[in-house]
Specification:
Elements lengths: L21 E10 L2 E11 L4 E5 L6 H9 L5 E7 L2 E2 L9 E4 L11 H12 L5 H16 L15 H13 L5 E5 L7 H18 L2 E6 L10 E6 L2 E6 L1 H8 L4 H14 L1
Parallel strand pairs: 3-8, 3-9, 6-7, 7-8
Antiparallel strand pairs: 1-2, 1-4, 4-5, 9-10
Length: 264
């Protein structure tokens, strides 16, 4: 079990009076002859979990790379934490977890985090002591304290994913961008990670943008961006989407919206 309890999903309204964590207008990404993202306009509120959902290949990862500033050939407007995406000042304010765990197999869990912490905030004395505290906290956050001295190469796939998440949590980022962090994980670990996401959003005010192609995870989000073929079909809360489409589940609502789009 993760050691941060899951709070009620009530972290919703406080961001309404502030600028969004992410704001996009006419966001377009081209890759060769193909347009991957097609003029997206949306906003991600602060302090909430926004789910980016859609089938594989619909552009979710491209959108996330655009948000963290690593995607080429981006046009339109994309502001992140009140700065243009990719601004150097954002590097320490954003935690990013890719689909493939980004860890060194020949280092222990703690050594991996100490390395990334030193890269993020180099220094000695007080700074070094603070890094050590951040590393210990991040390891505890993802429930890997018992494996802190184990080589990353000897961990299970789920544990390696948690190391990557711990790296993203170093320095308590204001925005977490998580690209399908629960793929391939067992139901218990998936539940524990979602409990952790809610605790981080509620207790620390962190904004979380998390992608998934598993529609039942949509029910765990405060807000949803539903994507298909490089476009956004809907930007709303799960309850509003179900009500709007007279559907019992978000998956049914998504299919309803797809049918609507195909009928135009």
């Amino acid at each position: 079990m993760m050691n941060i309890a899951s709070p009620p999903q009530t972290q919703a309204a406080s961001a309404a009076t502030t600028t969004p964590a992410i704001r996009a207008e006419s966001l377009t990404v081209e890759r060769g002859p193909r347009t991957v993202l097609r003029g997206l306009t949306f906003a991600v509120p602060r302090g909430q979990i926004t789910g980016l959902l859609g089938p594989s290949g619909c552009g979710k990862s491209t959108l996330m790379r655009s948000v963290v500033g690593t995607q080429a050939k981006v046009t339109g407007t994309l502001d992140v934490l009140d700065h243009p995406a990719g601004t150097p000042a954002l590097r320490s304010r954003i935690g990013y977890v890719t689909q493939d765990p980004s860890v060194y197999d020949d280092l222990t869990v703690r050594q991996n985090l100490e390395y990334f912490a030193a890269v993020l905030a180099p220094g000695r004395g007080t700074a070094a002591a603070r890094r050590h505290e951040d590393v210990t906290r991040a390891i505890a956050d993802v429930d890997l304290t018992a494996h802190a001295d184990a080589l990353a190469g000897n961990l299970s796939g789920g544990q390696r994913s948690r190391v990557s998440l711990a790296v993203a949590l170093l320095g308590t980022p204001e925005l977490l961008v998580l690209d399908e962090p629960t793929v391939g994980l067992d139901p218990v670990l998936r539940r524990d990670l979602w409990n952790l996401f809610h605790a981080i959003a509620a207790d620390r005010g962190t904004t979380i943008l998390v992608s998934s192609h598993v529609m039942d995870e949509a029910e765990r989000c405060h807000r949803l961006l539903l994507m298909r073929e490089g476009e956004i079909l809907a930007d709303d809360t799960p309850d509003a989407l179900r009500t709007r489409t007279a559907s019992e589940t978000v998956e049914a609502a998504f299919l309803h919206l797809v049918d609507e789009a195909n009928a135009r």
